[in-house]
Design a protein that fits this description.
Oligomer: single chain
Strand order of the largest sheet: 9-11-16-13-14
Strand content: over 45%
Helix content: under 10%
Largest sheet: 5 strands, mixed
Length: 220
């Protein structure tokens, strides 16, 4: 699903205003630090402009640490064996850093298409490198978290992207703890938003966002 670009055009914005969110057209001077929680690098690719890179990791769930240092447009698409776009992992402008989860469903990623105007890098690590969600977490952009608790209520807050006219898109899905299989959708909204969703137990939480967001879990 090309959620960054397509869904912004098709979905109403349903925005819940949050205090402290100020729109700005300026891009930050440099990308935030990488979000990796550690773990051996299975594959490392990089460049300074547009590139199609073949994925050499096994066809199993992996986390991608993605960084961009350029000041212009930056897009990353996950491609299948026929080089058709399966999903859009990044669609933003300026310096950026995030984590993405691929191969966690029936669509195996065989290549990545990167469109960039400056230095970028992508590192693939095992899903075990996901940072543990210990009660609560706040992230500056897309990330993959590991939840090891029992059933609980997840409180989510999307602060929005001040550089986006619509406030940015926010999609949160859960997957099996080993990454093999989709479980549930916790959020799917445009612009600043806050709300609650049930969390059934141990899982990977994959939030796709080009702006800050946070999550906390209250066990039952």
């Amino acid at each position: 699903m090309k959620w960054f670009q397509r869904d912004r055009e098709e979905r109403p914005a349903g925005v819940v205003p949050l205090s402290g969110v100020v729109k700005s057209e300026s891009a930050p001077g440099q990308a935030p630090p990488p979000l990796a929680a550690g773990g051996p690098v299975l594959q490392r690719i990089g460049g300074h402009s547009d590139q199609v890179a073949r994925m050499t990791t096994p066809a199993e769930p992996v986390i991608l640490d993605i960084t961009h240092q350029g000041r212009g447009h930056f897009v990353v698409d996950a491609l299948d064996a026929g080089l058709h776009s399966q999903s859009q992992l990044v669609y933003t402008d300026g310096p950026f850093a995030c984590r993405a989860l691929v191969n966690a469903d029936d669509r195996t990623v065989r290549a990545l298409r990167v469109q960039a105007d400056g230095p970028w890098a992508i590192e693939a690590t095992a899903v075990s490198s996901a940072a543990a969600l210990d009660g609560a977490a706040r992230c500056p952009a897309s990330n993959v978290l590991r939840y090891e608790g029992g059933p609980g209520i997840a409180s989510l807050c999307h602060e929005g992207d001040p550089r986006a006219e619509d406030g940015g898109y926010f999609l949160v899905d859960t997957y099996a703890a080993d990454g093999n299989g989709f479980l549930d959708e916790l959020a799917n909204h445009v612009g600043p938003w806050r709300g609650e969703a049930p969390l059934t137990g141990p899982c990977l939480i994959y939030a796709r966002s080009d702006g800050p967001w946070s999550i906390s879990v209250q066990p039952l």
